[in-house]
Amino acid sequence: MCGIIGAVLVQGLVAPLIRQSLKRLEYRGYDSSGIATVNAGRIYIKKDKGKIDDIHRRLNFDALPGVIGIGHTRWATHGPPSRQNAHPHIDCSNRIAVVHNGIIENYQELRESLVDRGHILLSETDTEVLPHLIEESLQTTKELVQAVAKILPQIEGSYAIAVLDTSGTALVCARKESPLLLGLGTTGFYCASDVPAFLPMTRKTLVLEDGEIACLTAQGAVLYRLLSTGGLAQLPPRQPTTVQWTLDMAEKGGYPHFMLKEIHEQPRALLDTLRIRKEKLQKFAEEINKHQTVCAVAAGTSYHATLASRYMFSQIAGRFMHSVVASESPEIIDTSLGNDAVIIAVSQSGETIDTLHALKGLKRQGCTILAITNTVDSSITRLADDVLYTQAGPEIGVAATKTFVTQLACLASLSIHLGEITGKQKHREASELFLKLNKIPDLLQSIIRNRESLVKETAQQYVAKPSFFFLGRGISRATAMEGALKIKELAYVHAEGYPAGESKHGPIALVEEGFPVVFVAPNDRTRRFILGNIMEMKSRLAEIITICSSEDERLIELSDRVVAMPPTLSNIFSPIGYVVPLQFLAYYAAIQRGFSPDQPRNLAKAVTVL
Ligand code: G6P
C-alpha cells in the first residue's frame, strides 16, 4: 500500500502542495518518498529513503519548479527502501515520470524483455517497467494519454498510476484494482489514492473506476475507458460528489477509528497478499520441507495465526509444526533445536523484542529462520534467512486485524505449496485449495457487509457482562483465542479463549445462568463434538452465541444468538472469515463501554521490551 498524488495547477508552484498532500497520505506508507515536476520541457525529481519531512529538510522539495507534478509515499513491496527504489521512476531519456501504487505481477517478464531491447533499469521495483514501456509507446504515439493506454493491457496485477512527460501540458492517471480518486478544484485538478491528499484544495471528487484513464490539464479532467486493444473511448462528463468529511475523518476513510477502517480493508489486504509470487512461496515451502522439525515462533495475535496454521500444515501438508510463544522460546526450544530445525517467525511489525530475542537464540543454535512480516526492512528481516511479506499495508490501530488475516493467508498458501512437495496434495487438489483460498476476499467482503450491524447489536446485548468464554475445536481454537484476546485488549472485559473440549476440565465451573459463551463452530469434522460442548454449557444456563455456517440448522436452533457465515467458506481456511465477527464484537464492545479502540490502555503496536 503506497500513496500517490498528481496535480495540475492553473498557476503557482505545485511542489509545496504535493509535499503537503504526501504528508496526509503518509499513513499509507512512509519508508521513502519523492516528487517529480515538469517545467519548460524538463523533468525535475527529488526522492529518497526516509520520512517526507526528513527528506524535505535535506533536499527541499518545495524548490522543484512547475505547475504539474506527481508524488509518492512508499510502502516497499519489491525492493527495500532506498533512493533508487523510491518513486517517481523515469525512462531512459528522462522524458517520462511515473508513480504507482499496486503490484505488477508480470514485471519480471516485462523487465527482461525491456532489458533485451536495450533499456537500462535502475531499481528493483516492479513500477520501473512502466516509464520504459511508455517511452517505447511514445515513439509511435503523440499524445501521452494514448501512449499510456497502449501499454496498459499488458500489465497484470493492480495499479493506480500517475504519469507526466516533458510535453508539460497534461498529467495522465489510470487505475485497476488500486484506489484512485480525482479532485476537481477551481485552481487545480488532482488525482490521489485517498481524499485527504486534496481535501484542503477541493471537496469535489470523482472515483476513477477500474479500467478508466483520466487526462488532467489546467482546463479540467477528461475521462476515458481503456479498450482491450489499448485504444481509448472517451466517457461523458460525470457529476462529482461533494465530500463532507473533516480531514481527520478523511484520514480514516470516513470511519470513526482506524481499527474499523482496517477491518473493512481486509478483503483488499487479502487479495494483495494472495498475489505473492508463486516462486517465492515455493522456495519457502522447499526450505521448510528440507528440515526435520518445523517450529513457529510469534507473539500476540501473530501467535494465534501460527496456532491456526498448525492445523493447515498438518491437514494440508501432512507436516507437524510446533508453535511456541516467543517469550517462552528461550526456556524450551533454544537448547533443544539445531540445524535440522526450521523456524517460521511471524510478526506484523518485525520489531517485537520477544520474537527477535527468541530468534537470536535459535540462530545461534543453527536453526534456519524464515520470517513472515508486514514491515519491509524491519529488524526481523535482518535476522532471517529468507522473508515473506504480507501485503496488509500500514496498520495503525494497535489491535492487529488485517495483518492477522494476511498472515493466515500467507501461511495457508505456504501449506498448500508444502502439501504439493510432500505429496499429500496432488496437483489438482492443490489447485482446488488455491481456488478456495482465492474466493475468500469476496466472502470476507460479504461477511463485512452483511454481519456488522448484527454483531453491533450482539455487543450491545452483552456489553454489561463481566466475563466471556470463547471456545472452538481444531483450527477454531485459534480463532476463539483471538476473539478472547481482542475483547480483552479493547473492551477491558475478562475473556478466556479455550479449546472447547478442554472447557469441561475447569472453566465450566465458572458458568452460571446468563454467562456468555461464544462458540466458533464451522461445519468441519469437529462439529459433532462441539455440539456436545454447547449442550454442556446450555444445561448450565449459559447464553450461547455461535458463529457457524448459515446452513447449520441444528446449531442455529440451539443458540441464543447466531452470526451466520457463508457455507462456501472452506473449513480449513475458516479462521480468515470467522475472526471478522469477533473483531467487530471487540470493537463495538469497546465503543459501547466508552473506550478508544485505536489506543487501548497499557498496550503498544510494537512491544520492544522483554
Ligand atoms: C503487541 C500488539 C499486538 C501484536 C503483538 C505481536 O502486543 O499490541 O497486536 O499481536 O504485539 O506483534 P508482532 O508485531 O510481533 O506481530
Report the bound ligands by name, code or SMILES.
6-O-phosphono-alpha-D-glucopyranose
Question: What count of helical segments does DSSP give?
Answer: 19
CATH architecture of the largest domain: 4-Layer Sandwich
Assembly state: single chain
Spatial extent as radius of gyration: 25 Å
How large is the share of residues in beta strands?
A: 15-25%
- How far apart the termini lie comes to 30 Å
Main β-sheet, spatial strand arrangement: 3-2-4-1-10-9-11-15
CATH topology of the largest domain: Glutamine Phosphoribosylpyrophosphate, subunit 1, domain 1
The major beta sheet can be summarized as: 8 strands, antiparallel
**Could you state the CATH homologous superfamily of the largest domain?**
Aminohydrolase, N-terminal nucleophile (Ntn) domain
